[in-house]
Structures are given as C-alpha cells and as structure tokens.
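Supplementary Methods S3. Input chains for the assembly prediction are listed below.
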Amino acid sequence: MRRARWLDLAPLVVVVVAGGVGLMLAGAPAARLEPARAWCAPSSARPLGCGEAGVDLLAVVSSAALHAVALAVTVSLGSFAIGTPLGVAAALARGRFERIVERACDLVQAFPTFMLALAVLSAVRVPSRVHIGAVFALTAWAPFARLALAQTRVLRGAAFVEAAVALGRGRLGVLVRHVLPNVLSVVAVQLGSTGAAIVVSEAALAFVGLGPRDGVSLGGVLDQGVAAMLRAPHVLVVGAVAVFATSVAMLTAGRGLVSRQRWR
Amino acid sequence: MRRVAARLSGLRRVSRVVGGRVIESVAVVGALASLVFVALRVLPGDPARLVLGDAAGPADLARVRAALHLDEPLLAQYVRFLRGLSRLDLGDSLRRPGTSAMARVGEALGPTAELALVAVMMGAVAGVLAAVAASGPWLGTRARAWIDRGLIVAAASPLVAFAPVVTWVLAVRVRVVPLPGDPDAGASGLFFASGLLAIPLAAHVGRIARAALTDIGQATFLTVASAKGAPPLRVWVVHALPAVVGPIVTVVATQLGALLGGAVVLERMFERWGLGTLILEAYATRDLPVLEGAVVAAGLLFVGAQALGAAVHVAIDPRARGDR
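Predicted structure tokens for the full assembly:
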C-alpha cells in the first residue's frame, strides 16, 4: 500500500513540476506573440515549437496545464466539501429529505453537462476561469453527495456503529469517530475522476471556442493544432499529449488519496 | 387465453415503467430549460446588451427587449417561456427574423441524431464483441489480458485529445479518411466521426459487459447449455449476453450526456452541420431563442434515448419488469 500511494501521486507531481520548469525555461509570458515565428517546428530556442502568430508552445502548454490542475483541484475539492456533508446529512435525516436529495442527484447526474455549460456560459460576454469553474461546480457536487448518501446509509445500520451508540457515545462522537472516516475514504475515490473530467471538459470548452479570456488553455492549443493540421502537426500532438497527461495525472492522484486513507 | 392475459399484464408493466420514465424525462427537460432561462435572464448583465453589444442605441435595445419580452416582470417571462416550451415554440430566431427558433433547431437535430445513433450502435457492438472475446474460451490468457488493458486505456483517454491525433494520422498521413471540413466527406465522413465518438463508449460498454459476463460466467445455466452440446459461441451470445443487457443499457444511457458533448466537439472539428454547430453559432451571435431551443432539444434527445434504453431493457430482460 505504501509504495502504491507514492507511485499514484507521482504523475500529478511530474505534471506540476514539468509545468513549472517549462514556464522557467520559456522565460516569457504565455501570451507573447512573434508573428515571424508562426507555426515554426520545435527547435533548441523553442523546444515545443510555435503556434498561431508565433506563441511559444512551451510557455502556453506549461501555463495552461498548471491552470487546468489548479481549476480541477479547486472545483473538485469544493464539490467534495459541498456534496459530502449534503449526502451524509440526507442519509442521517432519512425520510423526505433523503429522497429529495437522492432524486436531485439523479437529475443532475443525468444532465448533458457539456450542453448545460455552453448554455450557461453564454450569459457572460467572455467567460473567465471563475465562470468556468462555477459552471462545473453546478453539477460536480452530485456524485459526491450520492456516494456519501449511499455509504452513510450502509454505515447507519452497521454493527460497529450500533455498538458505539450502545456503549454510550453521543451522536456527534459517533459521527466524527465512526461514520465520517469511513464515508470520506469512499467518497475520496470520486476526487480523481471529477478532477480528470474537469481537465477534459475545460479543454473541450476551449476547443469549441469558450476558453478563458487570455486564451491560455490546453483546448486552445488543440484548436490551433486542428486548424494547422497540414502545416504544423506538432501543435496538435503537443496539445493532445498535454491533455492526456494532465487528466491521467488527476485520475491516478485520486487513487493515491484512497490508498492513503486505507493505509492509515 | 392465459397466455394472452400474461402478455397483456406484461405490456401493462412495460407501460408503467415507460410512464414513470416519461414523468422523469419531463422533469429533466423542465429543469434543464429553467436553468438556462435563469442563467440568461437572472444573472447580472443585460441580455439585450449581450445580444447587440455595447455600441447599440436605446431604440435598438428597446426593440430587442420587446422581441425577447424582457420588459415584462420576470415571473410573466417565465410563464411565457414554459408555455412556449410546452408547445415547443420559443419565438423567432433573432438573427434570422421570420424563422422560428425551433425550426432551426429541428434542421440541426437530424445530423446530430444520425451521428450519435451510428456512434451508439458502433460503440455497443464493439464493446460487446471485446467483452465476449475477453470472456470466451477462444483467445489465450495473454490476449485476453491485453483486451482488458486496452479497454482501460481507451476508457481513460479523453476524446478531445485523441480525436485530433487519430484524424491527423488517418487523414493526413495515411489518407484513408476525408480531411476535416471536406464538404464531400459524405458517408465515410459520418462513419469516421461516429467511429471516433464510439471509442470511449465502446470502452465503457466493454468494461461493464466484461465485468457482468465474469459475474455470470460460472452460472449453472451456462454449464447446462454447454453440457447439452451448444458450441461456445452459442453459449456466450445466445445464453450469456441477454442476461447482461441490463448493465449494458445502463452504461450506454449514462454515457449519452458525454456522447452529446463529444458530438459538439467533433462537429466543430469536422465542420459538420448539427446541433453542436448551431449551439456554437447561437452562442457567438447571442441568438437566445435558438440557444434555449437547442439546449431543450439536446435534453429531449437525451431523455428520449434514455427512455428508449429502459424500454429495450424491459423488453429483453423479464427480470427488469418486476412487480413494483
């Protein structure tokens, strides 16, 4: 277990460190344009080559990957913080509240979220990262609530919880000592897949033209790559590898969190 | 006579399941539409200004406000919106006066439904084939392990990352499929785009079907079928597959939202006309009625397909009918 825990967190660390090193190597802001170098192939001065209007791909991809990780971590932790208490509370309250929360989760999880994001984002002129994060948070809480609800429902009837109550522990004590640790370790599984989904959705939104204002997004790089598929295929490959690496890093990091919980 | 009665009661159960689904579908579409309504009308910012830009004069703003009924109280607007929704009439397109928003959506719905339908069929068939190949006795242990690994990798690969790369390899390097944006792409363009869209779906179907087949792999009814001399292909396809239809239909239904999102990405990439292109166009020009209509249509397509999936499940698997 211990070995797996570090191995699982390694890809995310690698992506973040690579992003930081890439930014330092590039040495210039991601938005700097050099039209003379437009679509130039990778060289020693531009290790990943250039994109549209001569942007340095190394700077853009590093900055975009770091932003994507930050967005994914923030939104998935936020959704975790909203969804988990909601699910636990619903399962403990039982009755109508439990049913309503369950149906709401069904409903939200059934939404075609990407369409929803497109429609909601059209309410602002140019989406910022805060807007994009908020749109994802609109639906991302549901799987956490659902998992927490299901797990708490199992735990509330478990023998060891009954034993703790019989031994005279208060409600809060049982909740904190016995229910929450077991709920958290299960719900944490979702952090990784939610994070990966957010990385991919953010790239997809930027790919279809709903990227953040400054244009620094992995999806933007892919969009440039498709437009210049014949002239400069390296742009497309760089973008695709970056999206893949970042999303897989989030996925495996989620698994790392779980093994850490169990190992304790 | 008794058989007819049994048949009828079966039908009644099917219709009860379908009826429940219809109510749920109406709720989903209503909630989706309301959320879009709220986002466009209630969030800070003037929709009329979003439509016309900052340079618009007061007369133009007043005209757009009147066309969108923005000058009425919010509740009246919402009632009007819901009433229009129930008649599938959300007013005229702002950018093409005289054309109703729903007519434009209807035009765009066909190509997207075609793309998604072909993708669902390809994905389901490919996923089931992979699962049967990985469960049956035909391949060696190592080949079966590779199928399992392939399914995991494919399920974790984001469409937006691999679709451009695959297209570049097949269209530019090998030249077996038309280039993105080729107006004469025709059927091969449709099948290639659907094939890309089908890959993540096939991976999810394959993993779920594989797990379900492993679960029932030791079941007595399969042993009986083998003992009576059925060849492995018959055992797996005729006896085992119908028993795992439930999980397969469920996973297809849960992947439909992602499929619709993927369709938007692919329509944009291949410059195909469809719901996604329409939504992006309506977004760029702030054609609010068309945007609302397109999202509602996407929701309808989505819940319709889910209901269809549930009906197929009930029709194939008698255990799903249940006495509730």
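Residues 260-264 of chain A have pLDDT under 50 and may be disordered. Chain A touches chain B at residues 107, 109-116, 118-125, 196, 199-201, 203-204, 207-210, 219, 222, 225-226, 229-230, 233, 236-237, 239-241, 243-244, 247-248, 251 (CB under 8 Å).
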